[in-house]
Design goal:
The protein has 124 residues and is mainly alpha-helical. It has one domain: NADH:ubiquinone/plastoquinone oxidoreductase, chain 3 (Methane Monooxygenase Hydroxylase, Chain G, domain 1, Up-down Bundle). The protein has four helices and no strands. The N and C termini lie far apart (63 Å).
């Protein structure tokens, strides 16, 4: 019974090796010459002058949320596109599958139009 799990063990070991070996090789082979310039915090090429807990503009968060929404749209549309031929090939569910797909796309289009109309996609 344990021989059935051997390929999984090999897969895990290869995955860990692919992740760990480059890090170990870089640590062993790369020169280590720290100086004050390398150890200083980097922030856009100049020294930090404000507190790290400063307030950010709300537009950064809006752009992040809109990116997640577009990403989720693609995550749902790609599987639908891959099985679309199977959905419409069966007469019993052809129109139901097509209508379901059109409703989903309509909801996405309405949401995108709303975000566009509210100016969420524009940057000043």
């Amino acid at each position: 019974m344990l021989e059935n799990y051997f390929p999984i063990l090999v897969f895990i070991l290869v995955g860990v090796a692919i992740g760990v070996l480059p890090i170990l090789l870089g640590w062993l082979v790369a020169p280590n010459r720290p100086d004050s310039e390398k150890l200083s915090p980097y922030e856009c090429g100049f020294e930090a002058f404000e507190d790290a807990r400063m307030k950010y503009d709300i537009r950064y968060y809006l752009i992040a949320i809109i990116f997640i929404l577009f990403d989720l749209e693609i995550a749902f549309l790609v599987p639908l596109a891959t099985i679309y031929k199977e959905i419409v090939s069966t007469d019993a569910i052809m129109w139901f599958g097509f209508a379901q797909l059109m409703v989903f796309i309509a909801i996405l289009v309405i949401a995108d139009a709303y975000a566009w109309a509210k100016g969420a996609l524009e940057w000043e």
